[in-house]
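User: My collaborator sent over this chain with a note saying "see what the structure looks like." That's all I know about it. Can you take a look?
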Amino acid sequence: MPKQTDKTAQPTAPRAAGGPPETEVERSETEGVGGPPAAGADAAKAASDTEVVAKPKRRQFSATYKRRILDEADRCQEPGDIGRLLRREGLYASHLTDWRRAREVGVLQALAPNKRGRKAADPNPLEGKVRELERENAALQESLRKANLIISVQKKVAAMFDEADSNERSS
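Assistant: Without extra context I'll predict from the sequence alone. Here is the result:
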């Protein structure tokens, strides 16, 4: 049975079995069966738009953008102008405070977006030469190991010949 409202319901023909008369109820176009077919799709899309992102991306503002916003904020004369500017741009008052402080200090790099995290160390100009010398050292050590192996084999062969020579002399 449809919903009844106080003033919009109008009685119609009585129901069979002596029940109360059915009423016609005014409905909005989006309510009930008569709603547009895309209403469900819009609701699903709206629900997916409001889902929380796992890790939001941090906003970064360019130095020219910061300067432009600070200039616009400085030109604001009427009460509420800065609030309108901030709402239009999607900024907070703390952004203006931080950017003005950086501008007053006169640090131009402070207006540029800073990379987060550990700073990369400046490469040592002698680092390439050190790597080259380390490779050369490793190659020379390998050559020395091979030379020592050859010398030890030669000593053993010489010792075997000396032993064979002394056995021939004694016999």
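A starting point for your reply to your collaborator: The helical segments are 39-49, 63-75, 81-89, 93-105, 108-111, 127-170.
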